[in-house]
Amino acid sequence: MRIENHPILELDRNKEKEITFTYKGKKIKAYQGETIAAALYAAGIRVLKASSKYERPRGLFCAIGNCSSCHMVVDGIPNVKTCITKVKEGMVVEEEVGKGDIVD
Amino acid sequence: MINTDILVIGGGPAGMTAAIKASEVGAKVIIIERYHELGGQLIKQTHRFFGSKKEQAGIRGISIAQELTEKITNQSNIKVMTEATAEGYYEDDVVTVSHENKFKKIKAKKVIIATGASENMLAFENNDLPGVYGAGAVQTLMNLYGILPGEKVIMVGAGNIGLIVSYQLLQAGVNVEAVIEAAPKIGGYLVHASKIRRSGVPIYTGHSVKKAIGESSVEGAEIVELNENWQMKEGTEKIIDADTICLAVGLNPLSDLLIQADCEVVYTPELGGDVPVRDENLKTTNQHIFVAGDVAGIEEATAAMLEGEIAGLKAVSEIGYSNQNLFEELNRLKKELEKLRSGPVGQVIKKGIKKVRRGNYVGKNRYSHLR
């Protein structure tokens, strides 16, 4: 959910360009400048990957690129830190299961 | 290979002031930052800084970040590389960096490592469920992207970060169900705690989280009372409904690069974890490397900025740059830092620093086996 009014922050989204990307085949709206994880979160998606051993659901933890809890497959590339990678128009984002295969 | 006088690793408060100081004396500086903008954690700090230092008290973190970023942009001898991650430090003092999907090599006459810290985890059942976040992550979502982390939040930790982030959550319209603190007393300033209490949020001291409840994400938490030995008291469990558990249980210095660069690193609880042995100018046991900010010991942004300035000035002076009052300024900065650490929290920090001061530390380097 996006914050509409805030006592300190100026959140004028009219200034930001709206873009669309795909998550598990679904179209999701985002704003330019947002990270992939933030845009998914705003759309109510909290599970970003499955843990590599027991496949337990995993979501954000640190949101600054330290912890690897938000790794996803982005445009076919595994282990992308979605918390620090900006979302782009037409991006294809998938949940990551396992350790991620090396791309040729 | 990219050559430069000074390489600063980390674009937070410490790294930024280090770069500014070094560039002002005339050195060629490169600053690399993992995120796509400079500022580190300041860019999400909507609260006003407190303390007695007149320059920063009363100013919001986000404004400090803007001001420092502007200064850096205006210095033509600072090159900024964002979305750049330091990958390794080599014996010939080359730092490898991944930047814009390319692998680059940077060789500097001096390197200032200001990589900051990572947030601590807390051990409890289901602590890996989506919905368990660091307090910094909550600030990132909320204050940087304007996205609510949840509707009902349990804050774990009643230090200043836990209290301030609780207040920020309330400001954004989120319900804070409770603040849980393991210690028998609130750790943060009472002025922050009062604000939270006045908003009707209960603060449970002597409590901890026993487990998170939920299948694919957090639906609540079971909290429990602790006895004087920090053990859970059976039969005191209580369930609180919440969709988010926010952990504000301390930070840990990100010293991996220092360990790899052969700097002596010592576990120092007063400073939050593994920190480098250094002299009063923040120079490590590797003659090429200085440190500044949280990686040198967990403190707060004002101290980090002063450390950055000291490290920046000293580093340039060692490679032949100088101006007429460089050493006077160094002394002034050190005095200011000393003054900042005169309170009760500062006493603990100073005790830690004394332990890792070059010359004081005698003992086995716990990472020597890695070499």
Would you kindly provide a written description of the structure presented here, covering whatever features stand out?
The complex is a heterodimer of chains A (104) and B (371). Chain A is 7% helix and 27% strand. With 104 residues, chain A is mainly beta. In chain A, the strands form two sheets. In chain A, strands 2-1-7-5-6 form a five-stranded mixed sheet, covered by helices on one side. Chain B folds into two domains: 2-118 and 251-370, FAD/NAD(P)-binding domain (3-Layer(bba) Sandwich); 121-247, FAD/NAD(P)-binding domain. In chain B, helix 1 runs parallel beside helix 7 and helix 3 (135-144) runs parallel beside helix 4 (160-171). The model of chain B has no long low-confidence stretch (mean pLDDT 93). The chains are: A mainly beta (104), B alpha/beta (371). The interface between A and B is large, with 34 and 37 residues.
* CATH topology (level 3) name of the largest domain in chain B: FAD/NAD(P)-binding domain
Assembly context of the chains: heterodimer
Arithmetic mean of pLDDT of chain A: 90
Between the first and last Cα atoms of chain B, what is the distance in angstroms? 26 Å
CATH superfamily of the largest domain in chain B: FAD/NAD(P)-binding domain
Strand arrangement in the largest pleated sheet of chain A:
2-1-7-5-6
Report the span from N to C terminus of chain A.
37 Å
Large-scale geometry of chain B: globular
- How many domains of chain B? The number is 2
Layout of strands and helices, then pairs:
The complex is a heterodimer of chains A (104) and B (371).
Chain A: E1 18-23, E2 26-31, H1 36-42, E3 49-50, E4 57-58, E5 71-74, E6 77-81, E7 92-94
Parallel strand pairs in A: 1-7
Antiparallel strand pairs in A: 1-2, 3-4, 5-6, 5-7
Chain B: E1 2-9, H1 13-24, E2 29-32, H2 61-74, E3 78-81, E4 84-89, E5 94-99, E6 102-113, E7 117-119, E8 132-134, H3 135-144, E9 152-156, H4 160-171, E10 175-181, H5 190-198, E11 203-205, E12 207-213, E13 220-225, E14 238-241, E15 244-247, E16 251-253, H6 256-260, E17 265-268, E18 273-276, E19 289-291, H7 301-318, H8 326-340, H9 344-356
Parallel strand pairs in B: 1-2, 1-6, 2-3, 6-19, 8-15, 9-10, 9-15, 10-11
Antiparallel strand pairs in B: 4-5, 5-6, 7-16, 12-13, 13-14, 17-18
Helix pairs in contact in B: 1-2, 1-7, 3-4, 4-5, 7-8
